[in-house]
Amino acid sequence: MDREEGKAAQSLPNLGATLANSGDDCAWCAVTEFLGQVPLLQCLPGSSIRRIADAVQLKHYESGDYIAREGEPVDGLCIILDGQAEVSAPANTEEENRPDYVLNKYDYFGYGTNSSVHQVNVTAVTKLTCFVLPSQYGHLLQTKTIWNAEEAPENHSLLEQILHLEKLEVDIFRGLTLPEAPQFRQVFGGQLIGQALAAASKTVDCLKLVHSLHAIFLIAGDNNMPIIYQVNRERDGTSFATRKVEAKQKGLVIFTLIVSFQKEELGFEHQAAIMPAVPPPEQLLNMEEIRERRLTDPRFPMQYRNLAAKKKFVPWPIEMRFCQDSGSQHKPSLYYWFKARGKLSDDPALHRCVVAYASDLLYSGVSLNPHRERGLKTYSLSLDHSMWFHKPVKADDWLLYVIDSPSAHGGRGFVTGRMFNRQGELVVSLTQEALIRRAKTPGQTPRPKL
């Protein structure tokens, strides 16, 4: 064997198939976890990373071996597992313009070249082990969205489209407020939480899922402008990873999010919280049905019904079914079932982002319930928002949202929330504090800005 070709010819066959045949699920998970820490791959759907883990091959090289030669065909994407390699510019390049650099663990090459041949030499500096994704599997690196490899976003729920981000650079994403999404005076807080969480989720390996998040709302966002999400990698550990996300418009940070991710593990378990006894969602009306009844109910004044009928109604991407009648609207509590409308891709990270989006709907308003009176106009704005995910969630199945407001004082309302699945399991706990004020009337002295 030509020493310059190293031990590439001794590469193992399809690594995923080898592990599958041996029944070594732990080894296959280790490959998946490793690939999920490669920045190039982190933005892919989790299903794509698992398919790549099935397809990669393992190759070994000795120090001094050529891994790739200038002018020779590209074998595929090569990711360094262990050791170091050196990249050298072509020999005909001027000496001062020949920047050689070293590749380390998680670095890669052979993907994104402008032709089918290498433009540089790559040589092993030490003993080197690499994962190689053969060229015939290159399509696995090209996906329709960050959540789904094969299907276009228009085939999925509006919420999945809202939570789709454009990757601009490693750790930098762009999100939009879609025209068909519900419009509020400013960017909806749940959209900021959900999109920022989506950005953070696309910088950790797919085996780690969010278990807690803490958000701070700083400046009201503009619905007509893109939002840039900058992710900072605060910590990567074996079991946990931490990310900080800043959402920016016009160069200003309008929102920050701290997220902690954890790899699933077994541990102690108990649940003291009990799901309230409420009717199942099938026995309750959704928002559209409630609106239709109000438009046709003769007990409502005709003028009210006419005005309501003329007002444009845009269904929310979350279907909601309220457990309490209008007589309880002055209580500092609210219970309702909710789930995402339409089809969601089967990605656990997406389902948690959807729940995060939905968590801010009607949440802080519960702290205003005891103070509602005829003619009262109020102004509210979320200040901070925290969530803890206790168990896996399916956002396209019914979840019961139990909201209580134990306190309001000093222009701030405080709310707590719990989410249960249909089996009565507590899956999410939440808290939020919001600014709640009487709206200004004409001629009133302006209040200081927040």
Automatic annotation (TrEMBL):
Pathway(s) it belongs to: Lipid metabolism; fatty acid metabolism
EC number: 3.1.2.20
PROSITE patterns: CNMP_BINDING_3
GO MF terms held by the record: fatty acyl-CoA hydrolase activity
Main location group: other
UniProt KW keywords: Hydrolase, Lipid metabolism
Pfam families: 4HBT_3, Acyl_CoA_thio, cNMP_binding
Keyword Lipid metabolism: yes
Cellular location(s): Peroxisome matrix
Cyclic nucleotide-binding domain boundaries: 40-110
EC top class named in words: hydrolase
Keyword check for Hydrolase: yes
GO biological process, one term: acyl-CoA metabolic process
A GO CC annotation given for this chain: peroxisomal matrix
Catalytic activity: a fatty acyl-CoA + H2O = a fatty acid + CoA + H(+)
Family: Belongs to the C/M/P thioester hydrolase family.
Record text on subunit structure and interactions: Homotetramer.
Name of the featured protein: acyl-CoA hydrolase
Species this chain originates from: Lolium multiflorum (Italian ryegrass)
Upper classification of the organism: Eukaryota, Viridiplantae, Streptophyta, Embryophyta, Tracheophyta
